[in-house]
Specification:
Layout lengths: L1 E4 L13 E4 L9 E11 L1 H8 L14 E8 L11 E4 L12 E5 L3 E3 L6 H5 L2 H14 L7 H4 L3 E5 L4 H12 L3 E5 L3 H9 L4 E3 L5 H7 L5 E6 L7 H7 E9 L18 E4 L4 H4 L7 H14 L7 E5 L4 H12 L6 E5 L2
Parallel strand pairs: 8-9, 8-11, 9-10, 11-12, 12-13, 14-15
Antiparallel strand pairs: 1-2, 3-4, 3-6, 3-15, 4-5, 5-7
The structure holds NADP nicotinamide-adenine-dinucleotide phosphate.
Length: 338
């Protein structure tokens, strides 16, 4: 089968930074589906993994978002059948979606939204899983009772990136008041269109920005860009009994003591934890993707796709990586065969 990979870190404008090559087509066993890939998206994790790579003896295939058709099922598969059109974000410790076929465990897969084309659907799985788990598992917000969340305020650091663009929509649907950060006119417009009630600038001090909007304290904080710059501001802004979740972490050691007086909670979200550690609740990613698919099909949320490249090959994946590396990405970029 065709595949795209790398064997050492090179700048993305080097044609060898990602190259086309051939691999044997794998076979499905156990809980695995073999999926023929029709569209993939690129996330910052692709850049991080490629950039931090040692020199490899054989090429590595990355890519953590896919839409495709199930062509073969393992003997323990119960959730899907041959011919199903599926979408998923995959596992951190298995070969990625940048290939003609990919094996994926059925428990982290959902049926793709029927009303969306491949590109619009491929934009969603990784960011939607991350946003869902951060908001409704780690922050403990109840998605099903928006009336109970009325008046509760969520601050999102980085509203216009891939995760922010779906987190704003989900938080808005859950009844929260959403303050999202954005620093350019285009990103400010985008976050307002995607469910933010108000915006702040992440290049400025969040305490000043948020207090200027009239809020003394914030009930929930969702960090989607790194804790170093704003950690002490988050501690000052978080409400007593408030909750903070980060999907990124910090380069510096994190001082948790500054949350003690407020009795505030801090949690991490990593979308790959369930599949890497085969947790008991791993199948919840199937359930979340099923829910996201329904919300997309019934128009409650919209795809965050902004850029489409075709076909899936090394040249177009290098272009997609370049866009994500720019640190100016709004929503998502997808590479598709259709
Ligand atoms: N833990 C997990 O499971 C998980 C999952 C997905 C992503 N992530 C991580 O989450 C981060 C965000 O990824 P993403 O795909 O959502 O978005 P992204 O592509 O990193 O976001 C692009 C946006 O970042 C904003 N930005 C630039 N500088 C910023 C700053 N100093 N502070 C805040 N925002 C800034 C820009 O908005 P402006 O132009 O308005 O400045 C731009 O639109 C990445 O580090 C990624 O690796 C983690």
């Amino acid at each position: 089968m065709k595949a795209i990979g790398y064997d050492r870190h090179l700048p993305i404008d080097d044609p060898q930074s990602l190259f086309d090559f051939e691999l044997p087509t794998p076979t499905a066993s156990g809980h695995d589906l073999l999926v023929k890939i029709d569209a993939v998206s690129v996330n910052p994790v692709d850049i991080a993994v490629r950039t931090n790579s040692e020199s490899l003896t054989s090429p590595k295939v990355i890519g953590w978002d896919a839409v495709g058709i199930v062509t073969e099922v393992g003997n323990q598969v119960t959730l899907f059948k041959q011919g199903d059109r599926v979408f998923y974000a995959g596992s951190f410790i298995r070969p990625g979606s940048n290939s003609e076929y990919q094996l994926v465990d059925e428990r982290i897969v959902g049926l793709a939204p029927k009303k969306l084309d491949d590109a619009h659907a491929a934009a969603m799985p990784l960011t939607a899983l991350t946003a869902w788990e951060a908001l409704f598992e780690q922050l403990g917000i109840d998605f099903n009772h928006p009336e109970a969340n009325k008046g509760k305020v969520l601050l999102i650091n980085n509203g216009a990136g891939g995760v922010g663009s779906i987190a704003t929509q989900l938080a808005h649907l859950a009844g929260l008041t959403v303050i999202a950060s954005a620093s350019r006119p285009a990103t400010i417009d985008w976050v307002i269109q995607h469910g933010a009630d108000q915006t702040v600038d992440h290049h400025k001090n969040f305490v000043t920005e948020v207090r200027d909007l009239g809020y003394e304290y914030i009930d929930y904080i969702l960090d989607l860009k790194g804790l170093d710059q704003h950690w002490s501001e988050f501690a000052e802004l978080i409400a007593p009994n408030g909750k903070i979740v980060s999907i990124t972490g910090s380069k510096q050691p994190l001082d948790l003591n500054i949350l003690k007086e407020k009795r505030a909670t801090f949690a991490f979200e990593w979308m790959y934890t369930k599949s890497k550690y085969q947790t008991d609740d791993m199948i919840s990613q199937h359930e979340i993707l099923t829910k996201i698919s329904q919300l997309l099909d019934n128009g409650m949320i919209k795809s965050t796709l902004t850029e489409t490249l075709s076909p899936i090959n090394a040249e177009n994946l290098r272009k997609a990586h370049t866009l994500v590396e720019s640190n100016q990405m709004i929503g998502k970029v997808v590479v598709t065969n259709n």
